[in-house]
Automatic annotation (TrEMBL):
<dbReference type="InterPro" id="IPR011010">
    <property type="entry name" value="DNA_brk_join_enz"/>
</dbReference>
<dbReference type="InterPro" id="IPR010998">
    <property type="entry name" value="Integrase_recombinase_N"/>
</dbReference>
<protein>
    <recommendedName>
        <fullName>Core-binding (CB) domain-containing protein</fullName>
    </recommendedName>
</protein>
<dbReference type="GO" id="GO:0003677">
    <property type="term" value="F:DNA binding"/>
</dbReference>
<keyword id="KW-0238">DNA-binding</keyword>
Length: 221
């Protein structure tokens, strides 16, 4: 049986009570590709919750190496989100929209998305990063409806990135959930009894005005 590419890369070793997985990955530094050694904790090899080397290798392969294989077939994923937006998404998706939609999208990109996520590589943005970003918008006082609009723009960006091979895998917005919007309390009309009770508490010269407003349809609030 053919071995998966991820099994030919990386190394697994013990580091104290834990399994440590390591690999080399390419980064763009000052416009040049630089290979960097990276390591990550996979699980415990001693004590409660310890796992075997075979299980540690399986987790390492499935959670990290397989994803590296997937991204290695799409070198465009090394560009940052800001670079993709400037070079592809804005000219090919935003600028062709109507003026109102174009202005609102550009405002969202410049005020929220690029300042917070623009420095990250496309391949490094996942559900966790998007969830934290959107939560930070809510914590800053933005309405759920506004944050929902930001999420929709992010979804549009990564959908287009998948089409152009700048992103691989599921959309990072797919499993992010936002608080449900509470519908505004509906204002009701005064009942006949409420109108008469209200008019009865007014001075005689004001009662006619209250009754007139009741006939023309006053609302509570």
């Amino acid at each position: 049986m053919a071995r998966r590419r991820g099994q030919d890369r990386g190394w697994l070793r013990k580091c104290g009570p834990s399994w440590l997985g390591g690999w080399r990955e390419d980064f763009i530094v000052d416009g040049k590709i630089k290979r960097v050694k990276i390591s990550r904790l996979i699980g415990r090899c001693k004590g409660p919750g310890a796992i075997s080397k075979r299980e540690a290798r399986r987790r390492f392969t499935e959670t990290i190496l397989d994803k590296l294989d997937k991204f290695s077939t799409h070198p465009q994923t090394m560009c940052t989100l800001a670079e993709f937006i400037r070079q592809r998404y804005e000219p090919e998706c935003v600028l062709v929209r109507k003026k109102s939609g174009r202005r609102s999208t550009q405002s969202c990109l410049e005020r929220h998305i690029i300042p917070e996520l623009g420095h990250l590589r496309m391949r490094d943005i996942g559900v966790v990063e998007v969830s934290r970003f959107l939560t930070s918008r809510l914590n800053k006082g933005l309405a759920p409806l506004t944050v929902g609009g930001i999420k929709n723009i992010l979804s549009s960006i990564f959908t287009y990135a998948k089409r152009t091979d700048h992103y691989a895998g599921e959309l990072p917005t797919a499993y992010v959930r936002l608080p449900e919007m509470t519908p505004a309390k509906r204002r009701g009309s005064l009942t006949f009894e409420q109108v008469w009770a209200l008019a009865g508490r007014q001075r005689p010269r004001d009662r006619a005005l209250v009754l007139f407003l009741a006939i023309t349809g006053p609302r509570i609030g």
